[in-house]
Write the structure tokens for this entry.
Amino acid sequence: MKISVLGCGYVGLVSGACFADFGDTVLCADLDETRIAALERGDIPIFEPGLEQIVASNTQSGRLSFTTDVPRAVREADVVFIAVGTPTRRGDGHADLSYVYAVAETISKSLTGYTVIVTKSTVPVGTGDEVERIVRQGNPDADFSVVSNPEFLREGAAIEDFKRPDRIVVGTDDPRARDVMTEVYRPLFLNRSPLLFVSRRTAELTKYASNGFLAMKITFINELADLCEAVGADVQDVARGIGLDNRIGPKFLNAGPGFGGSCFPKDALALVKTAQDYDSPVRLVETTVSINDNRKRTMAQKIIAACGGDVSGRTIALLGLTFKPNTDDMREAPSIAIVQALQAGGATIRAFDPQGMQAAAALFDGVHYAEDAYDAADGADAVVIVTEWELFRALDLARIKELLRTPVMIDLRNIYRPSEMKQLGFYYSSIGRPNDAHGRST
């Protein structure tokens, strides 16, 4: 099977590398000459555990290659995956489909023989119809099918998710396309991965519905965390209590500073806009988007309150900047709103993140980047855990306390036990746990 992937971003690169690892011949194409040159040198433009090794091994074997010649990639392929970005469009919140449609026009001029065109990018309902129209208009005699095959990859676990997926959703009513897509994913049959064939529009909506639901689940536990603090309950115990119900499940019930990243914020908003366009609003998701945006700002106020209500002239150490661990992705990260609010309050920020500092440097002015967690805490007035990287789970707390000017820790990921922190002499504030009269977690 000859596969071409158009777009060498996160989804395209992971998909292309994994298909090559299955034994397919894969050509990844992108118009960004700098990116392609880097990939040909073996330099991976994103951080994803295991990706560098898979790209290297399959490049060396000849199964995986890269090009800026998109028409060539289309001509040589049996299956063409569209994996370009669909960012939020400025001004109205809709998904920007300009890259998808531009690629469709290029595809239309380059098709040779029967080709399955697969939309891997996250796109609103009806995008596949428009892609088909563009290709048909550009090449009326072409023999092709347009399929929706949304990705369900978690950043930080994308290789595992691709090779051992919960499900593979394929949207097509074309028997020929169904046969081809069955062959594409045949290597996963040994893992008994469910291959779910649905209509194209159903597949497109399934992706948004999945991310919208998970965003609501995160927001629910975050709001419940606020209630727990108010009534003196522990949100972690509540989460365990409800998560043991098989109808609910334990995943995405970890209270924190709000969701971020490249998917949930963008996809939840796009789902809201699509629903409004069809005069069928999804009010739960609308509210979720609003609550999450506000929560990130609220976290900064929580930090300020733990510092006595004023951070002017103080140094705050932030541990973690990316929206989640095991990624260098800063898109919509809660740290952005937190840094902005603390700096507006007059604070100096010292920060450390294992992978995200380069990306963060392009977003922030005046942030001092540390060599490690201890360097960040040295001389600071408070330390804040923003992202739950594993190396923050076993800090030398006695050393952290010694380095801080005042023993204040705000744990936005509930990594540590309040009783332990109290015993060590910290002023400790966390999420959704009982507090004393001074706002300390007890």
The chain has two domains: 2-198, 240-429. The chain is about 45% helix and 15% strand.
